[in-house]
Amino acid sequence: MFTLTAFLIGLAGSFHCVGMCGPIALTVPVRHLEGGKKMGGILLYNAGRICTYAVLGLVFGWLGQQVSLAGFQQWLSVTAGLILLFGLLLQYLTTHRKLRLSAPGIFTAAVKSYLGKLLVAQRFHTLFTIGVLNGLLPCGLVYMGIAGAASTGTVEKGMLFMTAFGAGTLPAMVAAGWFGHLLSLGIRNKMRKLIPIMVAIMAIMLLMRGMNLGIPYISPRLNEQAPTEFIHCQKP
Asked: What does the domain layout of the chain look like in residue ranges?
């Protein structure tokens, strides 16, 4: 169920990917290629993105597992939801209230610099690396996926969550690479406006999950297995 949720989040949010990552997708060195080689290059680039997402899911799934083992899985879900809502608030303030925030950008600047060099080189064998680096760039949709991966509470589920999330973004990103010249700036800007809605839905889902309401799939009781496991451990 959680993998389907992740896939649908990626699929629904993939319009945002086209809006935000579209410029990079349009400069990926595949436009001069034809037929199967062009599609192979596009898939190679996107495979790099998804591999980065999988590694991020593994890392944050592990962090979520440590919190879960400490007995704070419920609070982890609530915290993740609140962080997403706070991020939406910051985005609103920076966009509509002209608030300027200076975030640490040394790592991002290094990634962008190396990414730029690879894009200028226009070499087929660098497409996977370009995708890997693109997956490391700041993105609200990826942050949403990371929050979901951490809330799964296990390494395996965290990695699967982000892999499914990346697979959900694949159709739109492949289309952007193939038909990118047909996407105007206005269309990409309209697509970009969808992401706050997706982040808000994900935040609400995480908050409900952490509230332990006993609603199957949406807000299951996270600790209902604990007493049984404790009893079994106490048997001689």
From this structure: 2-234
